[in-house]
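worker-03 picked up job from queue 'complexes'. Input manifest follows; two sequence lines, order preserved.
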Amino acid sequence: MILGYAGKFLEVNLSTKDIEETKLSDDVLREYVGGRSLATKILWDRLGNEWEKIDPLGPENMLLFLTGPLTGFFPGGRICVSGKSPQNNGVVGSTVGGEFGVELKCAGYDGIIVTGEAENPVYLFVKDSDAEIRDASHVWGKDAKQTVAVLTKECRELLKKRFPQKGEWKEPSMLYIGPAGENRVRTAAVAAKWTHAAGYGGYGAVMGSKKLKAMVVKGSGPLPEVADIKKVKALIRAVCENAYESELWRRWGTGVAGYEVGAKTSSEPVRNWQEEWHDEKSFGVDQFENRVWMKPYWGDFGCPTTCLKIAVVKTGKFRGAITDNPDYELQAYLGPNLGIFTPEENVFLTSLIDDLGLCGIQTGNLLGFAAELFQRGILTKDDLDGLELKWGDAEAFAALTRKIAFREGVGDLLAEGTYRAALNIGKMKKVDALQYAVQCKGISIGAHGIRSGKDYPEIYSYACSVQGGDHTSTASLPLNSGGELIMIFHDSAVYCFFNIFELPRKLKFQFYKAVTGLELTQEEWCNTKALRILQLQRAMLLLGGPDLKWNPQIHDDNPPRFYEPLPSGPYKGKTVYRPRFGRDKRRYYEAVGWDEKGIPQSEILRKLGLEDVDKKLEKLRR
Amino acid sequence: MTTKKEPIWIARDLSKCSGCRRCEIACSLFHEKRIWPEASRIRVFMLVPGAEFPHVCAQCEDYPCVKACPVDALSISKKTGAVLVNAENCTACGKCIEACPGRIPHMHPTENHVLICDLCNGDPQCVKVCQEGLWNVLRVVPREKYAYKLYARKPEEIARDLTVKIYGEKGEEFL
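worker-03 finished. Artifact:
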């Protein structure tokens, strides 16, 4: 058995109520590590043959909650959520911070695989080797904070009753969905700790389709044995010391960027990306820090950076709103993107997004899209059930957010996510609504624009990524120097990459070796293991279905907005030059082994041992 | 800052806890040679997100746990003032947990004895990492004759206080 792993997975079939333990061979774990890579492999093995027919919101889809070998050891605990995505019909590795992965490993499992769907709302309760499916009808419909309160209390009481000799039980760890997931909203997240979300991919809707409200885990064992505990301790120390040095991430987290990415790099969504610049000092990080941050440092298991902060609105109309920083993405998407420039309104909307169990990026993008359609008269007050969706009106946006989460009225149309909503509205109104949809292959673009050229993504980063608009998994060249292939490592070894900034790039592989005992170099990772996952994710994305398929020649592209010149700010006039995009895209295709149509070529697939994938892609090449 | 003067006390400022749990990691690595949150002598409770706090022996001035032990498994370190558990003698009867006003001792997950902070023989590992992180939630100070027992409180009680402190009256809803 490879060290660092618990050695088994919990497999739960919600249709038959069967709960089993599954083991995977050392060979599979060596090649596919964990998290995103392993999820992709499992999905391909089990659903690959029928992939195009699998409805992401049907009982045949699977949901995977996978840790990786570094989970719990590398400072900053996370878990990777995956399955067939109801946003892009491919595979998205979507990670969320918290203690869930650590508890799970301490309970003796490297992951949970959920299949089927329950008849009535349920939650899964795991205490070490005991797992049970329990009734969740009393929390169905409850928001995030209520769900966490009720299930924390209920499960602690169960633990006390069953193991009274222990003394006081610490709370178990939990992943849950809010009303949005229950209502299969495609921008619903799988959430943790009120404010943490696995948002990209839309797996909250998949949990909802399975009537799985939550998973609660208490593990009382140690983390698995490692190859070299002394080395692990030394590496934890190195990661922590480096992070403690970084004043920026510790003090502000990404909360500094709500002002800066607008004012300085000019790459922040403003009014649905009609602009990417603002200089609103009312949105400065000092305002957040001084007015709403009640706890200036908040972190997950082992984290030295604690980029999160607890924000509470104490006065005024939005008194009682609670969330984290918000982090940059939600500052941007539920702030300037909606014409909102005060911390209080931003915290209020973020808090609502948390409570309803929505992804703040995808939903903020959707709200901005709807507001632009209102601005242009494409969606009228009547279409919006009487709402006047004016830029800057936090309460109007809140009202629409609730409609989306509960699929009420126009909310039902929008609950399909920006891309699908644009298609439907386009048909309804006989306009090209896609020109206002700032997304890539079903996934809304993260809050980092490419037009100014001053932020980190390249002009092909979203268009060529296997996770579309995901701002963490962006394509870049040269292939093996960073970008998506390295992100696949973070998402597969499963830890928070916010703790590796400024560290030597080999440190993560030294960490991997200290835990597992296995040698791995960045070269080997990029040239074989990660590249294989990239091809597999690409193949499954292109196979797609059943409701939509992607044609790389059309869909490997930036949203139309990114070809409009920036209308304001220090980079006014800058845009993405189409011929250059075309050249860069071809360069990327070539580097990664895709043909001119964007389909992975036989040669690279066979080299990576993906003969079956090659066969399956034959029909797309024709 | 640590003190050279013994015996010592771990002074605590709970509302500053970031929830990083490095104290649990350091404690279990020191005592169990593993990362083992449930076997850590100091445990971070998060009954409400954002209101994390370390739950660890308050070193009461009258040591009710030691008095309650029916088998002489608990003693007081002359050097540090810590409660020491003799794992051989301990029968895991739980009387010390009942006697502790904060129900702070808890059973080892796999061994048949209770877990109580032993102050790492005067150099508490949890304090070290907390200081490294500049959180300053935990700090070693010389032991005086103050009412340390006030800090021996049940997790629910501490959580309620911190939750209301951070979230205001709305905090009451979350417990």
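worker-03 released lock.
The domain at 8-167 of chain B is CATH 3.30.70.20 (Alpha-Beta Plaits).
The CA atoms of residues 97 and 103 of chain B lie 5 Å apart.
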